Amino acid sequence: MSEVIAKLQEDHRRMEVILGVLDRKIANLTEGNNLNLFMIRTILDYIVNFPQKCHHPIENFLLRSLTRRNPQAGAISAEILNEHEMLANIVTRFVHDVECIEPGAPILKDELVATLNAYEDLLVQHMQKEEEFFFPAAEEYLIQADWDVIETRMRDKGDPVFGREADREYRALHKVIIEWGGK
């Protein structure tokens, strides 16, 4: 397995863990407890920005490369790119709902839970599709030169899209959320 695919799969596992923390925090709300808005906003920062800055640019590069190498295998590209946009729209709606919460005001729990469930359902299905179809197709059809380009860019700290600095920052944020979320 390539270093790139291993990183993308690790990203998926990290997102699943973050979703588990978010689920627990929203479950606390539905059980009548107060919502820790700072914690929710921190999680949302991760959910919004990590895919956009660190994960999807790599997938998008692979999708373009796959489409060039094998247009039939690359047919999944449009579907995955569309899902990236759908996920961003749903999480934007969730962020908006959270930002509208006023301290001490009643919270529309059902709306928050419905939006979160829609996001999670699509994200889980999306990650499964990538792991079952897209990643294996990339490994089958991409040539070493394709992998070399992206792996070189991933190691370049100065690269604004593929550089490791943003990824390192989000790994640190992930650790803080997990530690804090367990309390």
TrEMBL record:
Q: Describe the location of the Hemerythrin-like domain by residue ranges.
A: 5-138
| Recorded superkingdom | Bacteria
The cross-references to InterPro entries, in alphabetical order and at most eight, read: Hemerythrin-like
Any Pfam family hit: Hemerythrin
* Entry protein name: Hemerythrin domain-containing protein
Q: Which organism is it from?
A: Sneathiella sedimenti
Q: Source taxonomy lineage?
A: Bacteria, Pseudomonadati, Pseudomonadota, Alphaproteobacteria, Sneathiellales
